[in-house]
Amino acid sequence: LCFRPDGQQLAAVSSQSVRFWQESSSRGHRSTEGHSSRVAGVGFNSKNQQLISLSFDKTIQAWNLEGQPQRRPIQFSQPSEEIYGLELFLIPQTNQLVIKKSKEVTVWDLQ
To answer: Could you give the percent of the chain with pLDDT greater than 70?
Structure first.
């Protein structure tokens, strides 16, 4: 669950997708389609131009504010690797994010 930094939009994990709500509406606004496993975390980038999602399908996905993918998913782990404790942190004022998986922390640049 996260708010866009300007407070105009809310995003929440919903199984294999992310649902968006506008500030002025209590109903789900848009929903993403693209992950093949449970979404573990979401966050808006500092420029409010995209939402980043992290999933147990071992991919990072960038979405525009309409819920459409902006690029191909980024594979962050080997298919055979077992993962637990997956978390996502966006670094403010950058295009970087931190992924914590199991006992490992990795910084990714999304440019």
So the answer is: 94
Scored b (16 or more CB within 10 A) or e, 6-32 reads eeebbbebeebbbbbbeeeeeeebbeb
90: three-class secondary structure by DSSP = strand
Phi/psi of residue 19, nearest 5 degrees: -105, 140
Cβ atoms of 49 and 90 closer than 8 Å: no
- The length of the chain, given as a count of residues: 111
What is the residue-wise DSSP string for 57-78?
TSEEEEE-TTS-B-SPPEE-S-
Name the pTM for this structure: 0.86
- pLDDT at residue 72, rounded to an integer: 87
